[in-house]
Amino acid sequence: MFKISEFSKISQVSVKTLRYYDQLNLLKPAHTDPYSGYRYYSADQLFQLHSILAYKELGFSLEQIRQMIDEQIPLEQIRGMFRIKQHEIQSIVNKEQAKLVRIQDRLHAIKNEGGQEMMHNVVLKEVEPQLVVSYRQRTSFRQIPEMFRQLDDYLGNAGRPALSQIFLWHDCLESDDNMDIEAARLLTDKIASQPPFVVQRLQGIPLMATLIHHCRTTSRCTASTDLELWIERNGYRMIENEPRREICIPHEQTGDPEAYVAEVQIAVERA
């Protein structure tokens, strides 16, 4: 038998940790003196302690470890716990690998574009549901300002302010004169729909690839194409039938009413 201080030196585990494992019923002393309260450990308990340390190194919690070293736990349940941990670690590896690819892309951009690489930061984030009023039409790209003018007139008549401007691009690749465009404004509270204006709640998206850029509502830009290329290069794919979104904020410094700072958003999933 070894005193706790001796067992600590042999195992290279602190006395404080051994006492904590005792409190958790993870590693009870082989014997505790009923009078002095001194803890004593046997040599065989080194095997149990090493199992605890090995499981801990693999990322298991102390509660999970306690279950795994319990002789009453079925072997299949232990296998299941290892499979779950394997999945968790693989997920972390995949995320870190994706970061590595983005860093490599960034280094390439710095080399070839200088300071301009800072203009093309892509961020992955969750987007919550959003209440909007929208006006959808298959029309020309150049009609977007007029769509928002009509939408804002409707909001004005309803006594509501014109908040952030949102585009929903449903099917806009056929031609500039035949685009399925939905113009929308954010709402703070619900109002009645009145065709062609529809009040709806845009669904939340768990994973959006987003990019900030400068744009004008009356001219094309390459932001969506740049974002699509990033998605493909970084191991993601666009979710089908989910329109890409673009949130626009007026660019006050230019004095141009059609100039905006915009965030294009594309719903994605792991490829």
From TrEMBL:
Pfam families (UniProt xref): MerR_1
Stored SMART domains: AraC_E_bind, HTH_MERR
Keyword Iron-sulfur: no
Gene Ontology MF, one: DNA-binding transcription factor activity
Keyword annotations: DNA-binding
Domain HTH merR-type, residue spans: 1-71
Protein's UniProt name: MerR family transcriptional regulator
